[in-house]
Write a structure and sequence with these properties.
The complex is a heterodimer of chains A (263) and B (303). Chain A is mostly helical and 263 residues long. Helices cover 78% and strands 2% of the residues of chain A. A two-stranded antiparallel ribbon of chain A has the order 1-2. In chain B, helix 3 packs across helix 15. The chains are: A mainly alpha (263), B mainly alpha (303).
Chain lengths: 263, 303
Amino acid sequence: MFVKKRASGVAWFFFLAAALYLLMPLVAMFWSSATTPKGFTLIAYSQIFETPGFSETFLFSLRSALLTILISVGLIVPTTYWVQLRIPRMRPVIEFLTIVPLVIPALLMTFGLIRFFNGTSLTNSANGTYIMLIGAYVIISFPYMYRSVDAGMQAINIRTLTEAAQSLGAGWGTIIGRVIFPNLLVAVLNGSFITFSICLGEFTIASLLSQPAFTPYMLDLSTRQADQATALGIISFILTWVSVLLIQVVSRGRTRVGIAGVR
Amino acid sequence: MASIAQADEAKPPGRFDLRRISFSLDWVGLLPFFAFISIFLLFPALSIAVRALSDGSGNITFENLAGLNNPTIVQAYRSSVQVSIITAISGAVLGGLLAWSITLGNLPLWVRNTVLSFSGVAANFAGVPLVFAFIALLGRVGLLNTIFRPIGWSIDPQTFLYGIWGLCLVYTYFQIPLMVLIMVPALEGLRREWREAAENLGATPAQYWRYVAFPILMPALLGATALLFANAFSTYATATALVGAVGQTFAVTILVANQFRTDTFGDPGLGYALAFSMMVVVGITIMIYTYSRRRASRWMPRG
């Protein structure tokens, strides 16, 4: 190929320029979290765990993320299965509906939720707002969970598996729980890690619903203890990185992760 | 289900049309999903549209929408659109070049894999921590100011970071990786044969790109740019973490959030109209994206 050599030099230039732009803020953030009047120290990281509010908000977000994953999997797996098995013509409709959350920004969804349920027990009680939070989280997980599960189900022959299980006398619970689900484990884990990462980093919904979540806490902390907030930012970055790595490990590098849920 | 199917075959179709019953039973299976998405997404979203287009007593009116012609709202819209266009273009160009360099630039495989993994992380790494990172870099006591102060240079964050240009700079950070993730499959879809055919017909590399590759990539590029626009336009966390709630003239999203918390305009109808207008803008942009994607996939089944 005639331009191979030259193209490579230009390619290196673009890559290095991009690397500089993408890495500098991270380097600066680490530097900032480790620089104190007393010199270079990682004390901010060891103090985080004693900072009031950290463990509460972190556990809150962790719990919310797990609950979200459970509900999302519980809704998406049977629905996708049912659609592919019995009502294939509904597939485009479901696909469209699960993409709607990408079209309606989380901000507007929350705005709509609160105003729509204004005056009902969902907005009047602490439990109610928590239900709205989880509901909204499950909704924003749909695009990722559905795409992952749908692709996973396309890859295995669910009809044959179902018929085989039926002819061996399995009931629906056994079919879904012990035949379909294990075969979908990778797809489900994939969607779950993305959901986990989104929920931990989520700011908009939690902040508008005044929930004690991790990211709003981080912003609040930055006005009081900037170095610790910055250290939390690093931790948050590492958590995101771990989620993405786990996705790649689980799917053996076949998945490209495109997440757009926490802006 | 199995029993119904068997029953279906066993009984001749009479007045009890069993196929009808199994049809309705099938739909019952979708009920939980539809109920959930209706309660938490469709009804609330629809209610915004309905209330934006009606007055207090339920009559249709365009007064709320007309109220959008308010200096604060116009200013916020102008700024939001400006930032979205700038970062859609900067993200598309820089991300496109990065995608090109890791797919067709003959870089080592580890570079490509690293960039793809990092893009997965960075496209998601937005909002509050990202703003922290940029403040650590460009803030008053940031890294650059610390390095360059001894030689007398300084960057004033008030004029540079905490404004439109700061928003552009920070948004570009997550726009580039998003672009990479969208464009890499499209670039991989460019077949070697097309290039070889062009070369055999005597095309220069410039001609190949101008007349073959670029037209093929055009729908994908256009769609990706539209998506980046929508992405920037609906960004709230990053905007509010950078310029704060007082920066409502910088982003429509901050204005919506303020309206929603404290009823800034003292007019709930106007709040709905504002939210509705955002939905329309994002909706149109996503439609452009979907349409272009369909066009793009004619050439590239993987794109």
